[in-house]
Amino acid sequence: MNSFELNKFIGAILGVVFVVFSISLLSDAVFSSPEPETPGYAIAVPESAPEGGGEAPAAESVLPLLASADVSAGEAVFKRCGACHTIEQGGPNKVGPNLWGVVDRPIAGHEGFSYSSALTEFSEGGQKHWTYENLDHFLTSPKGLVPGTAMSFAGLGSVQDRANLIAYLRTMADQPAALPEAAPAAQEGAAAPAEGGGEQAAQAAADPVLSLLANADASNGEAIFKRCGACHTAEQGGPNKAGPNLWGVVDRPIASHEGFSYSGALKEFSEGGQKTWTYQNLDHFLESPKGLVPGTAMSFAGLSKDEDRADLIAYLRTLADQPAPLPGAATPAAGEGGAPAEGGAAAPAEGAAPAAPAEGAPAGGTQAPAQPEGNAAPAAPEGGATQPAPAQ
Ligand code: HEC
Ligand code: HEC
User: Fold this and answer.
1) How far is CA 107 from the centre of its chain?
2) DSSP for 242-267?
3) The CATH classification of domain 63-173, taken from the options 1.10.760.10, 3.30.565.10, 3.60.15.10, 3.90.550.10
4) Contacts 24+ apart (CB under 8 A), 81-85
5) Which end of the chain, C or N, has fewer beta carbons within 10 A?
6) What residues does ligand 1 touch, defined as CB less than 6 Å away?
7) Where are the domains of the chain?
């Protein structure tokens, strides 16, 4: 190859190199993505320093302290959360989600709140719940348990503060979750002899569907629900259609589903959210919606067969993270459910109670459908009111 051809050859190589460099420079210019100065969005509320200062200490567990925790001291601790959270039932979301019923609630599960992807991932698609342990760890150090959470709060270093606070959060629910110590007693409840037979029989006579519930066929109820499906979804987080989503409707405050616009008639009937969908209310409503609530917007003639309503209500009951106890089931906690606002409701008494609600086991975060009580109910002792809610 003579020198002239060599020059052409080298020229060709240089040309290719030039073109490659130009392309890479150009594409950098075209596709450049400058780093944001502050990733995500920052929340301007100052973090309060944790008691211990600095890193969250290797924390003690609140579990043994919960039974004797001071609920009203917990209410005072909650003031630190109030800048970002409401706690009352149906309260709005602020910087953080409303915390009514947060104990045992699915993590990142409050409707209408847009959670960080960190917390959403941590929830494993709603599988994980705010057990006492999870709450304890989260409140010790939110970013320690969930790196990347949007909750800008340094944490509570004092185990006593956390215990008091969690005991307070626990009371802010229709039906406070069982205390951790109470959980093992739950099995015994089923075996206890029925002493209140007389009273239950009277109740059952007044409302036959209540006595049918224990042996009702939830899968037949699911089939019956097809008649409701034109207007209602039943799955968690499902949309409202002509009627509101019915996830968790048993014991839910009447006319309370977020984002649904209820008739004035049903709102009045709810007495401002005081009344809940007890088994009895549901039974009467489903027998004749307009019979129970004249003027309700639910255009449905009603189900006249007792068995159909029992099966349907048994099915509705399973549509919840924690199905409500069956009527007549032993629920010492129920008395307390009636008065969640009274911080005084002494927790220790309950730790010693013989029988906890069967679904109570707070650590077992997974869905617990109806099986246990189905068998246990005939032997259930007279336990508290059939429905905790109307006492409110
Ligand atoms: C600076 C505002 C702020 C403060 C103060 C704050 N939080 Fe939060 N909290 C948030 C935000 C934002 C989220 C949502 C976190 C996410 O999406 O990652 C949250 C989430 C939570 C959750 C999870 C709720 C759910 O539905 O999964 C709990 C429980 C919680 N906070 C409890 C508390 C408690 C108790 C306190 C007081 C000790 C407190 N927070 C103080 C902003 C705050
Ligand atoms: C034609 C549509 C329609 C059908 C069918 C229907 N519903 Fe409804 N439902 C509604 C509407 C609308 C409301 C709201 C009523 C109001 O605001 O007064 C409602 C309300 C309810 C409520 C009260 C919910 C709450 O959060 O307060 C319950 C419970 C309910 N329906 C259960 C059922 C069941 C169970 C069935 C099937 C047996 C059924 N509905 C069939 C339209 C319907």
Assistant:
1) 7
2) SS---TT-TTPBTT--TT----HHHH
3) 1.10.760.10
4) 81/153, 83/45, 84/43, 84/45, 84/151, 84/153
5) N
6) 43, 45, 80-81, 83-85, 95-97, 99, 102, 107-110, 115-116, 118-119, 130, 135, 139, 149-153, 156, 165
7) 63-173, 195-334+367-391
- Overall fold of domain 195-334+367-391: Cytochrome Bc1 Complex; Chain D, domain 2 (1.10.760)
Which residue's entry shows tokens 């917990």?
74
Question: Tokens 């911080």 map to which residue?
Answer: 343
pLDDT digits (tens, 9 = 90+) for 124-181: 988 899 999 999 999 999 999 999 999 999 999 999 999 999 999 999 998 888 887 5
For every residue of 103-142, DSSP letters joined together read TTPBTT--TT----HHHHHHTTTTT-B--HHHHHHHHH-H
Q: How many Å from the N-terminal Cα to the C-terminal Cα in the chain?
A: 101
Distance from the alpha carbon of residue 244 to the mean position of ligand 1, in angstroms: 27
Looking at residue 51, the DSSP 8-state letter turns out to be T
Q: For residue 276, what is the DSSP state?
A: B
- The structure tokens listed for 253 are 């405050």
Task: Find the 87 Cα to ligand 2 centroid distance in Å.
Answer: 27
pTM for the whole structure: 0.40
Residue from 211, 183, 182 nearest 197 by CA: 211
Distances (CA, A) of 371 to 186, 218, 323, 360: 14, 10, 10, 14
Enumerate the β-bridge partners of residue 253: 276
d(CA 247, CA 318): 9
Q: What is the tens place of the pLDDT at every residue in 345-366?
A: 333 443 334 444 434 344 433 4
Cβ proximity of 311 and 217 under 8 Å: yes
- Contact predicate 243/298, CB 8 Å: yes
Ligand 1: residue of 48, 110, 151, 172 to mutate (most ligand atoms within 8 A of CB) is 151
